[in-house]
Specification:
The structure holds two protein chains of two kinds. Chain A has a domain of 208 residues. Chain A is globular and about 55 Å long. The longest helix of chain A is centred in the middle third of the chain and has 27 residues. In chain A, 75% of the residues lie in helices and 1% in strands. Chain B is an alpha/beta fold. In chain B, helix 3 crosses helix 4. Classes of the chains: A mainly alpha, B alpha/beta. The interface between A and B is medium-sized, with 19 and 29 residues.
Amino acid sequence: MKKYLTYIVLGLLALLPLLGLSSYVMHILILVIMWSVIGMAWNLLSGYCGQVSFGHAAFFGVGAYTAGMLYSKLGISGWWGFPASVFVVSLCALGIGYICLRLRGPYFALATLAMGVIFRIVAENLVGVTGGDLGIMLRERTWIDKTWYFYIILIVAAAAYYLVRKVIESKLGYYFVAIREDQDAAESLGINTTKYKTIALILSAVITGFAGVFYMNYMGYIDPKVVFALHDISIITIMVVMVGGVATFWGPVVGAIIMVLLAEMIRSIPKLGTAHHTFFGILLIVIIIFLPNGIVGDFGKIKKIFGARRPAA
Amino acid sequence: MSLLQVKKVSRFFGGLTAVKDVSFEINKGEIVGLIGPNGAGKTTLFNVINGFYTPSRGEVLFRGSRISGLKPHQICQQGMARTFQVVKPLQRMSVLDNVIASAFLRARDRAEAAAIAEDTLKFAGLYDDRAVISKGLPLGKRKRLEIARALATQPELLLLDESFAGLNPAELDESIGIIRRIKDKGITIMIIEHHMKVIMSISDRIVVLSYGEKLAEGTPDEIGRNPQVIEAYLGEAQSA
């Protein structure tokens, strides 16, 4: 049963559009899946390899801008962003890695934080290249209906899930976790830590970039403040994985469901809606204190709490 | 031919001289003990040999070629493995996964790495603990896990940094047995140890460091009779 869980979930998801769900529900589903993809990407670098990034918006934004600029500058479909972003995002990741990966722990985190902000500022100011704060708008989206967008992001998510799973179960995965647990020990065991950290970063960046390419094509409009956002992209990425479960396969998915639904729910509360970041902050504190391994990672603990209460009630 | 040559190695930290002009050689198949009072520079010397530090002066040759300046992982690939005085288990991995991670160095795939790891764990007497998350291991077994992990990289030279410290007598005997069996496999060993009885009984030769300099070198008997060594090290231990 457990072995087939992935296929069952994927099959059920693939059938969802046939239910004739409303456009709004489809939009929420698409967002959930997109955030799962970003979460899985972050989880690979930060959850498994232990290099906590606060700057994943850089890769998301570069992916989105690659797609957007193919459209605005070359006049070809933004979907070409998928293949093109692999090169562009890898290149950016190499650059960021060269600077940041020599730092460890909180210093790496701070450096990536700075990188994310630098990318936003550059995108805002290179008006001739990116269009600056005006952003990029698709004159018409590929489809009006959301069904195809849903399938495309579902395929991206399935591919990302498969890739992460394969990587983690291979030599790379062992090396990533060894680096996370003790970089000096890993180095002394013959693991080229710089090389493997760079591999983790590039894989993570490319997957995040895919989500960015999708975002451009799906939303039809991007500007630097949206796709390079620290609080709306980089920090939410971390939250998705922290809430769901760091270094678990399903954690990012569970986290994405909770975070997207929560954001929608809170936003619809009158007056309080604009304060949704405050709620996220409180949620994060609660999670860190009570479920440090996230919902998937501490699932046993959650079961115990509810199991213990039921007979009493 | 000597497996490891340490040639006039010095290492400075700012104004502090941790290791000064130390030279010695290790021959294939030997167990060489490295002893000295606390702060003598033993671990620093290990860190220089294994590539965590580059020597400020001098050079280290392994199998005749210069290794100083290489990174630890490159030196490990050439066939030198080490353990740490303060054990560094990969905490949230199981004992088996710890050793698999290091076995990958010489293995082509996961199955081969797992096979090497299981053999190594049996050799080190840790096979029954293979599923334990290494954070939960008692110190004695953690020290042995360090050795197992280093062995799984299939080294020619093994650097052991205080693998006996803090062990109870039963664990001590077990570890001594393991060291002897490692030697029987043809692996050369250099070992830092404070436990005099252990070092005197298992070493073929001993190098003594004091205040970063080589004080003496010789067989355990010679070292035991050397008045300088007794004054610097054994004498101190007796008066304590």
